[in-house]
Amino acid sequence: MSGTPDTDVVVAGGGPVGLQLAYELGLAGVRVTVLEREPDRPPHARAWGLHARTVETLDRRGLLDGVLDERARWPKMPFAGLWPLLDLTALRSDHPYLANLPQSTLEELLEDRVRGQGTEVRRGHELVGLADDGDGVTVTVRAGGGAYRLRGRFLVGCDGGRSTVRGLAGIDFPGTDPTVAAMLCDCTLPTMADERRGITRTETGTVNINPRPTGVVRVVVTEYHRTHADRDAPVDVDEFRASVRRVLGRDLAITEPRWLTRFSDTTRQADRYRQGRVLLAGDAAHVHFPYGGLGLNLGLQDAVNLGWKLAAAVAGWAPAGLLDSYQAERHPVAAWTLEHSRAQLALFKPDPDVTALRALFADLLALPDLNRHLAELITGVATRYPLGGEDPHHPAVGGFAPDLRVKTIDGPTGLARLMRTGRGLLLDMTGGSAFIGASAAWSGRVDVIPALPDQPPPYGAVLVRPDGYVAWAAPPVADVTNGRDAAALRTALVTWFGPPASG
Ligand SMILES: Cc1cc2nc3c(=O)[nH]c(=O)nc-3n(C[C@H](O)[C@H](O)[C@H](O)COP(=O)(O)OP(=O)(O)OC[C@H]3O[C@@H](n4cnc5c(N)ncnc54)[C@H](O)[C@@H]3O)c2cc1C
């Protein structure tokens, strides 16, 4: 089937990443259809934490307004179960904390926003086939005992670690097989007051006990010398208890098990994120052990990186290479994350050599600069993209734009709030009009806003991509009107927002 598309983008998978991507596309006015295999959203939450860069990113969409109170902002987080903890208050971030938000709450919030944009989220609809003919992608969908076809200009597989889209598109998923057997149980633990919180490491594995603010206790057991015979077999509470007993050498008084599941340290990454008109994001593109709490964060940032680029391709103004910059920017970040989760898992291995390494790491974590360095890597705050090539023109280029407080013609506001449109932003704080005039031809794709900063800003003017990263900046005050800055601005506008609109 070819011909007129039914929709611009088919998103396979209505998990957090698919919904975030749908939201980004919806902001740009792209027609999206989300296909979700499950008829209902799962009641349990896999992830519970959003790292600083994710919070910064979602804040630039207003998605967390009124969601996080002070109790949900944790100033510290563990690294490999070592002491001292990572001090998040030292992060160079607008949001220096770990946000305690269940994945299920985030999914609900995103689905409400997406439906509010008029996007169709088809629950109980499973993608089972695809054909990319170069002009569009026709997918086969199984639903309600029958099947139908749906044609989009692009398809994005946000359908999780065992992605059907990835398989059908012929994208390889190289990596390593499981070496450990892990299980999770959300339960009531009447002895919680007497239990050691956090991770206990023994000669066979680890047990992690974490009481949640809801009163439910999450217990995770990991055994190092075995793997699951059947990764899909349901977990019986007796199997879980037995595993805990093998690791702890005693029983845990688990009652009221609410959710039991098994997982492993399978670590894989798609060898490419794009095949023609088919793209991958989130767990469909990368899987790893959940130590560090990185998977959800990684996937949400994939979605925000990809959304505006795909919207530009749909709208027809995407400059050459824009869509491929998604893989160029995000593949290395995921590759690092996979290595990081391996490193954390290795630091728990029951082995005397590892015990010695742990002592060394604990010493290093006590050094404030090192502690912050590691925290900035894990929380994504250290993430930069090589946006300016070899000569980035200004040191801010490639980094994430902080939430500068400014006054505009509409009153006091901040850079984060100005980014809620999901468009590019040119914020000119020079008091002149040179940069405003130079960017006028892009005003359909970039919000061009003159402003007065509350504090001396790190730059006189800044061009921010919709994902929050700086594409161009001019130094503050003195030499703002020189021709080199204006020429670099034009280059950045053409690179990221296409040729100037005519007329
Ligand atoms: C035990 C555990 C704990 C975790 N803890 C954390 C943590 O603390 N922090 C963190 O950041 N990450 C954590 N993660 C990882 C995190 O949960 C995932 O990275 C995240 O869910 C990925 O989101 P996603 O949307 O890419 O995929 P998923 O959440 O897997 O969503 C994919 C969706 O696609 C649907 N689907 C699948 N196939 C099809 C199809 N053919 N057609 C239509 N729909 C389909 C599925 O039903 C599902 O709804 C944890 C993971 C596990 C297993």
From TrEMBL:
Signal peptide stretch: none
Ranges of residues in domain FAD-binding: 6-338
Keywords: FAD, Flavoprotein
InterPro entries registered for this protein in UniProt: FAD-bd (IPR002938), FAD/NAD-bd_sf (IPR036188), RIFMO-like (IPR050641)
GO terms of molecular function: FAD binding; oxidoreductase activity, acting on paired donors, with incorporation or reduction of molecular oxygen, NAD(P)H as one donor, and incorporation of one atom of oxygen
Keyword Flavoprotein attributed: yes
Keyword Flavoprotein among record annotations: yes
Cofactors: FAD
Protein name as annotated: FAD-dependent oxidoreductase
Taxonomic source organism: Virgisporangium aurantiacum
